[in-house]
């Protein structure tokens, strides 16, 4: 059954406005900043995939094609808000202030990557890999804001597939029942690994899941940053004013593999991917800005050079970080250290010393 919900799109795939744009979109400085960040995200993402291919980081989940969502969400959030992200949120995290080298450390299997240096993101959550569990964590954070009377918003993201999980639906329910200051941003990139959207769920939209929980839901074109910025901005404002939670389903497409451990050519038709490239968000905003006379090829080349230098500096910092001792796998797990694990930790440290050819205490 279809529940009529708005689906917002301002820019056509070729960047032409489809009608009047929201008033804030006259701010070309803002739109240019967003564009710069989208390009930085894309180049960083490409580098991360290359680092995995050359064995320098572990599995990585590319954000290719979903840059508009993350950049818009990250730029709308205030420092005091809390992001509760999932694994395809490089764009949001970078915009919030997480450092590129921290993201590389995380995907390199190093916990220091979740120990964000920037004070503005100290309270943001680490990347969540278990599907949809973060939706409930965000409701916990929002409950704390509400009890303390703070004007802060918890923002949580997830994929289309995650909206089939009980955790997600329970989170919507508690958010609606308690009118929590939480915004759910669904990155509907059409695939949950090899499972296409149409067989994940019988409802015609994912946004309508919000309606059953008593909160507003709507769709936006997730390749159109003007639409994402406008609608997520409104949802954040509502939540900040104590008017309750909201859900925004952003329609996008995962242009890359699910992760570097996946080969999407085995289950996706080439034609579908080719078609999706026509809609992609970076080119769309670039075409719009060029038509307004505020972007051109020389600015583009300068931006690419600048972004590549930033990415390279981050890679250098990441590679200089060195490996943590193997027994660090026990760290950050318990508030109070369980004595029973002491022996295991010592055993592991000793084995590691032996493996390195060092001295054993045996
Ligand atoms: C609880 C749980 N079940 C299964 C998985 C394995 N898994 C990893 S990603 C994924 C698909 C998620 O798809 P979607 O929510 O659409 O997000 P996307 O990866 O497309 O951004 C699954 C099933 C997991 N990580 N956690
Ligand atoms: Mg998906």
TrEMBL record:
Named cofactor requirement(s): thiamine diphosphate
Domain Dehydrogenase E1 component, residue spans: 35-325
Reactions catalysed: N(6)-[(R)-lipoyl]-L-lysyl-[protein] + pyruvate + H(+) = N(6)-[(R)-S(8)-acetyldihydrolipoyl]-L-lysyl-[protein] + CO2
Principal EC category: oxidoreductase
Source superkingdom: Bacteria
Keywords assigned: Oxidoreductase, Pyruvate, Thiamine pyrophosphate
EC number of the protein: 1.2.4.1
Subunit structure: Heterodimer of an alpha and a beta chain.
Function: The pyruvate dehydrogenase complex catalyzes the overall conversion of pyruvate to acetyl-CoA and CO(2). It contains multiple copies of three enzymatic components: pyruvate dehydrogenase (E1), dihydrolipoamide acetyltransferase (E2) and lipoamide dehydrogenase (E3).
Protein's name in the database: Pyruvate dehydrogenase E1 component subunit alpha
Organism: Azotobacter bryophylli
């Amino acid at each position: 059954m279809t529940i009529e919900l708005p689906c917002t799109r301002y820019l056509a795939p070729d960047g032409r406005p489809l009608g009047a744009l929201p008033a804030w979109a006259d701010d070309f400085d803002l739109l240019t900043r967003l564009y710069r960040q989208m390009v930085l995200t894309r180049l960083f993402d490409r580098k991360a995939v290359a680092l995995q291919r050359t064995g320098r980081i572990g599995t990585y989940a590319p954000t290719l094609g979903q840059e508009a969502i993350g950049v818009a969400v990250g730029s709308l959030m205030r420092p005091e808000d809390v992001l509760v992200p999932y694994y395809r949120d490089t764009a949001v995290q970078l915009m919030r202030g997480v450092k590129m080298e921290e993201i590389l450390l995380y995907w390199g299997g190093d916990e220091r990557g979740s120990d964000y240096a920037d004070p503005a993101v100290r309270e943001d959550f680490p990347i969540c890999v278990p599907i949809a569990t973060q939706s409930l964590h965000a409701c916990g954070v929002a409950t704390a804001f509400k009890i303390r009377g703070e004007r802060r918003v918890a923002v949580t993201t997830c994929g289309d597939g995650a909206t089939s999980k009980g955790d997600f639906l329970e989170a919507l329910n508690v958010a609606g029942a308690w009118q929590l200051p939480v915004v759910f941003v669904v990155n509907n990139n059409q695939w949950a690994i090899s499972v296409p959207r149409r067989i994940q769920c019988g409802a015609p939209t994912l946004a309508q899941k919000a309606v059953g929980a008593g909160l507003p839901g709507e769709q936006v074109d997730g390749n159109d940053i003007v639409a994402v910025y406008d609608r997520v901005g409104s949802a954040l404002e509502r939540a900040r004013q104590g008017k309750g939670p909201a859900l925004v389903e952003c329609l996008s497409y995962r242009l890359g593999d699910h992760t570097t451990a996946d080969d999407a050519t085995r289950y996706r038709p080439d034609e579908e991917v080719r078609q999706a490239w026509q809609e992609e968000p970076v080119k769309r905003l670039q075409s719009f800005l060029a038509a307004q006379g505020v972007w051109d090829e020389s600015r583009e080349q300068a931006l690419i050079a600048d972004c590549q230098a930033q990415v390279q500096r981050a890679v250098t910092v990441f590679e200089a970080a060195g490996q943590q001792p193997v027994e660090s796998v026990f760290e950050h797990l318990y508030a109070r250290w369980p004595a029973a694990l002491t022996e295991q930790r010592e055993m592991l440290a000793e084995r590691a010393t032996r493996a390195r050819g060092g001295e054993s205490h045996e």
